[in-house]
Amino acid sequence: MHKQILIHPTDRVFVLTGAGVSAESGLATFRASDGLWAGYRLEDVCTPEAWERDPWKVWEFYSARREAAFAAKPNPAHVALGELERQLGERFFLCTQNVDGLHELGGSKNLVHMHGELAKSRCEDDCGAAPVVDTRVYGSLDEVGRCVCGARLRPYIVFFGETPLELGRIQDEINRATVMIVVGTSGSVYPAANFVQWARLNKARTIYVGPEAPLNAGAFTVTVEGKAGEALPGLFAIQ
Fold it and tell me: Are 236 and 7 in contact (CB under 8 A)?
């Protein structure tokens, strides 16, 4: 059991999560040797060029990701973060790099998915239409729906080389935060890996929770090593 970390009455908490949080729910992490991306070249399934070249290969990949994510259940880490939000109310904000919906199932409400969401699709031409809820697991490209403008729907996923979502809001929340908690992310994917540095500029306390030290470990004032589902429950004491 790790020593409890105090959250003071004046604190505003910003949480950043990565794939390590959902790994305990059975979803493979990006860089695992036996992980989800094994057997797939990044360039073939998660870039704008891949979509232009072979949209079905992209949809085949993300349909498989949907199938796995929709079968998964939130683990104690998701539930612990949902409970922390319940206690802190509007002083809590969660930014996740994950595209599954497990944080919501764990009770989180005030959150953004900076890399998109598996359960939605959007216009491939970015015509301005809002993303639509789409939970289908497609068997062929012919089954994929069309936007109101007539263009094909593509996964509501931020491909490599594209700009993450809601960066303005994320920056505003970091600027207000007095505590940043980073959970289950390696510190290798940008711009998310920079968030802790932004928080440090504002003198925020920075806390890392994960099974091993991240690449940017030197930016954290506290490091708690362990699986998120084991370390997070009871880690924070609300004053």
Answer: yes
Give burial (CB, 10 Å; 0-12/13-18/19+) of 209.
buried
Q: Are 141 and 123 in contact (CB under 8 A)?
A: no
In this prediction, residues 17-30 reach a mean pLDDT of 86
> CA gyration radius for the chain?
18
CA distance 205 to 178: 6
Active site (catalytic) residues: 115
Beta strand extents in the chain (DSSP E only) = 5-7, 13-17, 92-96, 111-113, 116-123, 132-133, 153-157, 179-183, 205-210, 222-225, 236-238
Name the DSSP letter for residue 90. Answer: G
- At 37, the pLDDT band (50, 70, 90 cuts) reads low
Six-digit token string for 195: 């968030």
C-alpha–C-alpha distance, residues 100 and 74, integer Å:
10
> Which of these ranges, 4-8, 39-43, 89-93, 184-188, has the smallest mean pLDDT?
39-43
- Residue 225 tokens read as 């090593």
Give me the domains of the chain, ranges plus CATH numbers.
1-27+73-115+163-239 (3.40.50.1220), 31-71+119-157 (3.30.1600.10)
Q: What are phi and psi of 138, to 5 degrees?
A: -80, 145
pTM score above 0.90:
yes
Residue 130 DSSP one-character state: P
Q: Are 35 and 65 in contact (CB under 8 A)?
A: no
